[in-house]
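Section 5: illustrative case.
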């Protein structure tokens, strides 16, 4: 049965700079998710559990926080520091999902909207204006808007901030909803040359939240050398001045909106990016993506893993030590050299070439998951109960 229509309603950082980035990132995460006065211990324990894959233990901490703040007001706080969900069930209720965090957070967790719709009477999503067009391609959403809807006149309405949804569903590694793509866009028209792979690249993180995520442009020299050798064509996906691009690295991508970026990504063979919005977008589109992480990466990437349970088409490349981007880029360059067109006239062709590329990008055909179809479907169900004990 078809879905109901959606309504239209740089320089290398110094040690001091890195310390400030780390403090700002940690403080931001604490302020947004935990009770004033007890943030440090709670957040560190929660983050340790999430990084270890012990999600249920993290949700017990979230349960504690939810109980302790019940009845407390947060409307005086900036939007990105507010909580919305009060622990009530979403079953047979109208649900309003609000996106108060970053663009990447919205892209990652909007995957839960269809799961909410399986339980709720109606699902409306308030997204950042930049993501409205993309959000309307997600199945199971009744209305997408950028305007806050008045809750006072909506009896029974359940409001949830989008990053509260994993807790609401008590997500674990065993039931994590990782079916991709969940954005549905047509690929852009992109010129292709025989034996050449089109690769998107992002080396600068946005919004200033954690500047450790950004790679100094000078560290990209190995990729520029590979690009000049032929076999790959690098498309610069970030918005930047032409003068900031290392010589010979690649060409500026033509895109005006995030929806344009999504269409372009669908036409690429691979996206290489730092931990920023484009990493989530490529993963949500089921595009092969290599995400480059600093040594103290965010909890969502867990610890020591080279893959992501959130995105089946993603590989992770991690710093061994803080600030060591040169080593990460060399690993990426080595992986790209393994693809036969970079080795000149002796390149493989046909099915052997395709299989070689799949080995390099680290997964099978686009859209496939490491799980079986049955396991993937189970992963889309809530953790407990026939209709989900969504609390």
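Designed sequence:
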């Amino acid at each position: 049965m078809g879905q109901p229509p959606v309504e239209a309603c740089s320089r290398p950082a110094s040690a001091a700079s890195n310390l400030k980035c780390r403090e700002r990132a940690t403080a931001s995460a604490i302020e947004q998710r935990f009770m004033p006065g007890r943030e440090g211990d709670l957040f560190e324990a929660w983050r340790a559990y999430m990084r270890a894959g012990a999600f249920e233990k993290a949700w017990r901490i979230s349960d504690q926080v939810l109980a302790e703040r019940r009845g407390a007001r947060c409307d005086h706080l900036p939007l990105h520091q507010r909580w919305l969900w009060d622990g009530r069930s979403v079953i047979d209720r109208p649900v309003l999902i609000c996106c108060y965090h970053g663009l990447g957070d919205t892209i990652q967790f909007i995957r839960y909207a269809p799961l909410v719709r399986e339980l709720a009477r109606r699902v409306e999503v308030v997204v950042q204006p930049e993501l409205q067009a993309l959000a309307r391609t997600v199945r199971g959403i009744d209305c997408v808007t950028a305007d806050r809807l008045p809750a006072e006149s909506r009896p029974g309405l359940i409001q949830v901030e989008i990053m509260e949804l994993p807790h609401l569903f008590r997500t674990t590694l065993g039931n994590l909803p990782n079916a991709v793509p969940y954005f549905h866009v047509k690929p852009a028209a992109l010129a292709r040359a025989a034996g050449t792979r089109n690769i998107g690249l992002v080396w600068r993180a946005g919004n200033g939240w954690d500047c450790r995520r950004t790679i100094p442009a000078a560290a990209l020299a190995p990729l520029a050398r590979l690009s000049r050798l032929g076999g790959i064509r690098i498309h610069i996906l970030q918005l930047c001045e032409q003068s900031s691009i290392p010589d010979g690295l690649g060409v500026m991508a033509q895109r005006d909106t995030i929806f344009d970026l999504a269409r372009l990504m669908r036409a690429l063979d691979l996206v290489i990016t730092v931990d920023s919005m484009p990493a989530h977008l490529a993963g949500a589109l089921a595009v092969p993506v290599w995400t480059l992480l600093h040594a103290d990466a965010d909890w969502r990437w867990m610890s020591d893993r080279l893959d992501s349970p959130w995105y089946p088409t993603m590989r992770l490349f991690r710093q061994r030590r803080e600030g060591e981007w040169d080593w990460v880029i060399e690993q990426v360059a080595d992986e790209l050299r393994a693809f036969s067109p970079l080795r000149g006239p002796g390149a493989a062709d046909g099915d052997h070439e395709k299989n070689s590329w799949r080995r390099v990008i680290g997964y099978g055909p686009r859209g496939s998951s490491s799980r079986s179809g049955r396991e993937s479907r189970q992963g889309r169900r809530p953790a407990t109960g026939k209709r989900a004990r969504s609390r």
